[in-house]
Amino acid sequence: MVGMISKLRLRVQRQTLLTVLPVLLLLLVIAFAAGAPAHTRGTDAEALTMIDRAQHLLERIGPDAAAEAFAGHDSAYIDRDLYPMLLDDKGVMIAHGWTATLNGSDLQDLRDVDGKPFIREALAGVARDGRTDVTYQWIDPLTGQVARKTMHARRLVLNGKPYMLAVGVYR
User: Fold this and answer.
1) Residue 86: which of 163, 169, 168 has the closest Cα?
2) Which residues of 76-90 are buried (b: 16+ CB within 10 A; e: fewer)?
3) Most buried among 14, 44, 137, 139, using CB within 10 Å?
4) Full-model pTM
């Protein structure tokens, strides 16, 4: 009788463990999906530092080499969710650090999920003031969810032509 009770107790413990572990794993997945941990996020200060670094590089190598310099998720210009973008003054993407397939695309009329023409707004801001910050709604590459993002942008003149260099920060 004692042996039978021990076997029953062991079976109940095993079933409880097999029930609890998947639930704990599911809770962990939900916690990460709800928002990436803070250390996986770039800050405004880090974005501005990246703009400085990218500007110094572009002043050395020129805009034609930007796409190669920024390309790839293992690039020195990719830091968690931060990456640089270089556009000409008409809104054509010269170099996109995260999605190289955008290079060569005219994005001046690109709108966020709320319909805001954020590229056009940023281009106007840098043309007028030399730098600007534009907040819009965009898909966060770490969570796949729509999130607020602030694009920090500044005007550069490279080889006598105006460009916009930007890095965005998810909120």
Assistant:
1) 163
2) ebbbebbbbbbbbee
3) 137
4) 0.76
